[in-house]
Amino acid sequence: MTHITRRGVLAGAVGAGSFALVGSQWPRLSGADIPGRHDDSLSIAILGTNQDALARQSLVTAFNVHHPDIPVRLQAIQGTDWADFFAKILTMVAAGTPPDVCVVATEGAQLFAERLAEPLDAYVNRDADQVQDYFDDVHPSLIEAFMYKGSLYQMPIDFNAANIYFNTAAMTRAGIEYPRDDWTHDDFLAVARRMKQASPGNFVPFYWTNRLWGGIVPWLYVNDTSFLTEQRSPGGEWLWNRFYPDHAGQLTGGYLWERSNATDPRVEEAFEFVRSLVQEGLGTSPAQGGGGELVGQFSGGSIGMTPAGGFWVQGLSEAGLSPDDYDVGYFPGWRSQRHQFGAAGYAILKTSRRKDEAWEWVKFCTSREGMKLAFPSPNTTPTRRSMCDETLYGELGPKHWKVFYDTLEAHPCAPIPAPPQQAAVETALIKNVLGAVTGTAAALPAALARLDEDLTRALEV
């Protein structure tokens, strides 16, 4: 549909924090990026190329069967990652040429909620009967991730949890069985060591990338901590009481990440674990390349394990792997087994003059019909549990493909820590993770103190 998958981001490049979403740092737009000032079509901005927009035309065609009076134009905006895309949207807003609707990932959800997006509360309440089927089919953790200070700003269409992919050949060489669902970080360490001992010299048991999704954060989450403090906003009862009455009282008005937590002893403990993996040669250093190398290395058999979600199934198939060549399981537990996820959905911009038409687009794209058109292949995890089935994953997916959605059901899950200052926050994290996991154990407290200082400055912006 009009989303970019986690596979696309991981295969792309730098972390989302590499572009500041302020002032002169905004990327320049090409003429193709800027929609016509006098076009009366509903403009939907996607991250991608014109070819990507053309490939999604079937969604527009189906929408117009239901709404022939709402012309739609998909606006492809090219960018290296989500931050580049968000920055261009901000530029378009400043130039007076914003789209009406924009696909937004977790990384930008609070930025848009605070500055750019229209809350959906009134629309959801008005059309509650029409959207009931959507909420009945979507896990509440995914909805809560797009709540901000009591209001809902997006209805997510796809997500990916940070699960662990296994190279089955490496497991066979080492005599390793598929791990228990409740395996621990100590079990993970034992598996990595056995893989290393049984494999050739260029083999690395664990590949990870230095960014918010799939980087250090999953290890922090399972150690029951994070690099930012986590609080919940009050509110949201208007939604939970209506659509999730069985969970009422457990869900909130959204996440708040307002202060650094980098000096928490559990943060240091998790960093030390990852640092020891790197020092022992069991895990890659984040200095040794980014996500662009990952599919090739995993499909070539030089990687034993790596964090990934349902987005990777299609990519591994295209790289020549059969479902028997790999498998997927839950991230190992520690003090908890809380999993990280990222998601995406459509945001209606405050500046839109077509908000009612934009809401019709959002409703259609979250309907069963719209989402089946959007996700015909296993290149992400749809937010509708009914779609995560044999039809989507059975042919190309690994044996335990049910893990992709069952992660939400079996474990506590939370979104990427992404406050409105996410770009500056991720820049601070990426810069300091490198030194923290490649230095000595004695130098780790100082590295985390620098991270604390940088995060504190970033959150003051």
Automatic annotation (TrEMBL):
SUPFAM superfamilies (alphabetical)? Periplasmic binding protein-like II
Query: Superkingdom of the source?
Result: Bacteria
Give the stretches traversing the membrane. Answer: none
Pfam families from the UniProt entry: SBP_bac_1 (PF01547)
Protein name, entry field: Extracellular solute-binding protein
Q: Which organism is it from?
A: Arachnia propionica
